[in-house]
Design goal:
The protein is mainly alpha-helical and about 120 residues long.
Length: about 120
């Protein structure tokens, strides 16, 4: 079984361009191009919150925070002393900020998502 010939960009463009028509001539259909690739349907990802068994990594959006070394070290030390993770401390800090500014808490926001 021989492989189909590789298509070049020029041949693809030439095959897709309408042929030049002479005045008064009838337009002919372009010669069919043999299929060389399988068409795979695009399955868009499900929006967050639609899959109840999705992990936090699949549901959440990632955000980077740049911390000066002393700030990072202090956060790491607090997490170690409290035997918790830095991520949990960052969420606690965000929750305090939300409450201080009169916004909904993380728990309230998560209740809205889970409905």
């Amino acid at each position: 079984m021989s492989k189909p010939p590789k298509l070049s960009l020029a041949s693809i463009v030439a095959a897709s361009a309408p042929p030049a028509r002479a005045s008064g001539s009838v337009r002919q259909a372009p010669a069919p191009v043999p299929p060389t690739a399988e068409i795979v349907p695009f399955d868009p990802p499900q929006p967050a919150g639609r899959r109840p068994n999705a992990t936090l990594k699949e549901r959440a959006r990632q955000m980077s925070v740049y911390l000066e070394p002393p700030v990072y070290d202090q956060l790491r030390d607090l997490a170690y002393a409290e035997r918790t993770k830095m991520h949990g401390l960052m969420l606690e800090a965000l929750d305090l900020l939300f409450k201080q500014r009169g916004a909904r808490s993380i728990e309230q926001l998560n209740e809205v998502v889970s409905r």
